[in-house]
Design a protein that fits this description.
Keywords: Thiamine biosynthesis. With about 220 residues, the chain is mainly alpha-helical. The protein contains 12 helices and no strands. It has a single domain, classed as Heme oxygenase-like (Heme Oxygenase, Chain A, Up-down Bundle), CATH 1.20.910. Bound molecules: 5-(aminomethyl)-2-methylpyrimidin-4-amine.
Length: about 220
């Protein structure tokens, strides 16, 4: 008998159309091909500085609301890996020839705010499954994108984004480890969840994937 795919595999399958759109977004194809306009790089860094602060805050509220000591320890171990993304921001600023130090504390954009509210609402739902489902696309989408770029041979001395791609794509990068850890926990929690709870978690996951696409679009608008 064919084995039913795990819940996390089902989530990844459901996200394929959004991942395809992300993969074809000009910001992402620009990283792949070695050129992204300066304005887009700047906007991305300014907003991502704000986004990562919010991501850490949601993660902390998740950890604070846990009542299982072992789970808390596991999540605290991951907490130390979160938010160390100053160096990819510095790389973008170097390519754009702007001062990194001046890019923090800019106003939070509409899309950034929407994505952060979405993540916070997953934590406010009081469900660890929902919260992990909403947080996972952040590390997961990047690890998928850069792995593909590495497979396609897009890194090398001709691509100024090589270091950025390798930051997220190197073995045991923070995002690769974090998404593996989160997906494992999602599968454990999903095995005890009701159909309604699974549907809710799926919606949180797919909405975050869509916010990821909007985040690229915010920095490099096509619409
Ligand atoms: C919006 C966003 N999504 C994902 C990542 C990569 N962790 C990021 N830095 N920013």
């Amino acid at each position: 008998m064919m084995q039913q795919p795990s819940f996390s595999e089902q989530l990844k399958q459901q996200a394929i159309p959004i991942m395809t759109n992300i993969n074809h977004h000009p910001f992402v194809t620009g990283i792949r091909d070695g050129y992204v306009p300066k304005t887009a790089l700047l906007k991305y860094v300014q907003q991502d500085e704000q986004y990562l602060k919010g991501f850490i805050a949601t993660y902390q509220s998740l950890v604070d609301n846990l009542n299982d000591a072992q789970e808390t320890q596991l999540m605290k171990n991951t907490e130390t890996e979160i938010g160390h993304e100053h160096s990819p921001h510095e790389m973008f600023c170097e390519i754009a020839r702007v001062d990194y130090e001046q890019q923090s504390n800019k106003p939070v954009g509409k899309i950034t705010k929407g994505y952060l509210n979405h993540m916070q609402s997953s934590a406010d739902s009081g469900s660890l499954l929902n919260t992990l489902a909403a947080l996972t696309p952040c590390p997961w989408t990047y690890s998928v994108l850069v792995k593909q770029m590495i497979i396609e041979g897009k890194t090398g001395k001709n691509n100024p984004f090589t270091e950025w791609i390798e930051f997220y794509g190197k073995t045991n990068s923070e995002d690769i480890d974090m998404s593996k850890h989160f997906f494992n926990r999602i599968d454990q929690l999903a095995s005890k969840a009701t159909t309604d709870e699974l549907c809710q978690a799926e919606a949180y996951f797919l909405d975050s994937c869509q916010w990821e696409l909007e985040f690229w679009e915010q920095a490099y608008p096509q619409k």
